[in-house]
Amino acid sequence: MRLHLYIQPLIAAVLCFSHARAATVTEVAFLIKEGKLEEARFHTAQWGEMATLSDAQLFIRAIVTPKARQAAVVYETLIERFPESGYADDALFRLAQLRYAEGLYHASRMFLRRLIREYPDSPLLQRSLYWTGLSYQASGNPDSARFFLAGTLPEESRIELTDPPQDRSEHVPQPEMRRSAAPPSTPVPKTTYATQVGAFTQQNGALMRRAFFEREGYEVRLRTKERDGTLFYLVWVGSFDTADEARAFGAGLTRKYGISYTLVSE
Q1: Most CB atoms closer than 10 Å: which of 70, 133, 178, 242?
Q2: CA 101 to centroid of chain Cα atoms
């Protein structure tokens, strides 16, 4: 995503402002860069109705909107009102990613096709072709996937997508236990908890779900599990000492992104 291209030029000076006035796009962009999303949401709410906002204000508001479906409405409004905006192609790309994360691969491809067709000079063009191929692959159309992925897949991603999963600990031989007169005192392994936000039969789906949450700033891990002869690729977000903390976190993800979760431990 190109958010940093818009934000970097805006934070050259130290910004000091209060809640007594409406913040500018520059100021809210600085808050996002600093990770102060709640404060950024407060200020974007003061801007008023979407019909009165500029393209830059709509783009910033969509970024800080916590629920994916509500953010999608803002992106769609930006594209409809400002089709010539420098933010329009980015908005289409983000819409495609949101639909992909929901498993709506056809809808994701529709946004990507529009980006490719209407914004042929966009720096997101290659990434759009790449995501189109992944979408076809996730929906079970390998021929179309190969057509779009050819020449567009970064080298490091190509390795990750084609190599077999390495996290197959159940197949790793356990070291032989040595006998001793008195077993050494070892600490009890600590149980940690996480939220599982996806279980995929195709690795690409898990990689894309992981990429989505990594872009949102979360700690994400991939795991594998075999059940009834089928290998599943699992996506875990977060790491917590207690189950209650993990549940509260998972509930927040559901509210924000509309994605269900499962409590897991290791």
Answers
A1: 133
A2: 8
Token pair of 160 as six digits: 């990750």
Which long-range CB contacts under 8 A does 6-13 form with residues at least 24 apart?
6/56, 6/59, 6/87, 7/32, 7/33
pLDDT in tens, 60-77: 999 988 888 899 999 999
Alpha carbon distances (Å) from 175 to 172, 178, 184, 204: 9, 9, 16, 33
> pLDDT above 90 covers what percent of the chain?
20
Classify 225 as helix, strand or coil. Answer: strand
Residue 17 CA to its chain's centroid (Å): 31
pLDDT at 59: 93
The domain ranges of the chain are 1-85, 88-160, 193-265
- Phi then psi for residue 11, to 5 deg, are -115, 30
Decide if 78 contacts 91 (C-beta within 8 A).
yes
- In total, the chain counts a number of residues equal to 266
Q: What angle do CA 69, 73, 77 make, to 5 degrees?
A: 165
Question: Taking the domain 88-160, which CATH number applies?
Answer: 1.25.40.10
Q: Which CATH class is domain 193-265?
A: alpha beta
pLDDT tens-digit map of 32-68: 888 888 888 899 889 988 889 999 999 999 998 888 8
Helix (H, G, I), strand (E, B) or coil at 169: helix
pTM: predicted TM-score of the whole model, two decimal places: 0.53
